[in-house]
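batch job 7 of whatever, protein = FAD-binding protein
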Amino acid sequence: MIGRRQFLGVSAAGAAVVVGFDPSGRGWVTEAAAAGRPSFAAAPALDGELLLDAVSRQAVTTDLGNIVRRAPRAVLRPASVADIAKMIRFCRAHGIAVAPRGQAHTTYGQGLSAGLLIEMRHLDRVHALGPRTAEVDAGIRWMDLTEAAYARSPRLTPPVLTGYTGLSVGGTLSVGGIGGLVGGLHTGLQVDHVRALEVVTGTGAVERCSRHRRSDLFEAVLGGLGQCGVITKAVVDLVPAREETRTYAFGYTGTAAFFRDFRTLVERPGIDHIYAEFVAPGTAPTYTIHATVFHDAGAPPDDGRIAAGLSAEPEIADAGYLDYAFSIDRAIDALRETERWDEYVKPWFDVWLPGSTVEDFFHDLMPRLTPRDIGAFGAGLIYPQRRAHTTRPFPRLPRRDGSPWAFVVDINTVSPAPGPDPAFAEEMLARNVRLFARTRERFGGTLYPIGSVPFTPGDWRAHYGDRWPAFRAAKRRYDPSAILTPGAGVFGG
């Protein structure tokens, strides 16, 4: 159990001072233990900055979840890919763990490091913007790439955008990249729209890879949780962008009626994106479907055709494409300004479910879901994904079950108040463990690894299943000293 004083990173009188929690080793690191580690005094000359001061290190000790705390010994703010390669070679030689940090949007310390932490946001250039692709630094945010592509003539957009677009390209490509507000129905995931990558491996080598060049590295890095390399550049697809959007919101109080209409809408021609929200029963509506059509000015969709045969009447909202794409960013920015959003504890639960069992999952879940399981500023979310459009081996979707669909289900739990809350974190971590075991065993679900579900190396082996031998071989080939991204504990930390 995480004690309150340990969670806050302090110690009782006379005890060793704790400087970080190591979830991969399931233990606390003290100043005494850290003192004997190799020094960064002999680090190579860099174009950017290597920061060793306490303020810089303490600023990156946690992620969005505010559950795990792990202080790095040094922070790299690279000015070039060469900086990253040099420092990985240095860290390998000295047995120092390394983790890249995009926007730190995981919730259980997956991107933290007790060694070197690389702040990828300092590499954020658009190197080339063409009619079908963009080559960008991994630290650029999807929002910035989308704005640059949309400013072209004709207008362009990435074919898949996460709901929150303030995330880095490298960060979401390392986990999969769900179509939160753009993509999913007809596009696949963000990892399905990558043409090529530049990667710095765990040996410090700078490699270009694609489906046709070093394909084993390409497959291991996309959705690979940073285990085999640090993504430094990506060539990603662009597609034509529409000018306007129209969103239809349908509300439901019952699970059966909701899924009946949800399954109708995901197959309805003309709908470009769809997702659903859910809350604890007793609040009306319990479920809300958001179905969106992208269109050009002066050519709106046929409202009657979109809503035909459904059991709920929609509320309709119109927005420009960029206003729609960035709507969740604006909502989060407002929470940051008014509610101290970044200080809340967020023990999120994120899983994939097969199309054949998702309804049974919700019939099982909803009677036990309470308002505390989500929180005033949290969200329950459901994203459909047509399997035919998923082309990469990672992330791991559930076994095929005859359904053309798989669904991401998120219980984005937020604590009752900002600030440390060890008791709430422990309560919800225990809930996540129980719920994931039930999800896996009864409904065939798999983990979408951005949330807060503690996993052992054995859990990871079971998670990857028949893909584990190839993934392990890539790890041994490209990160033979096992220094990269230990936070998730995939290979034992």
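notes: The first strand starts at residue 18 and ends at 22.
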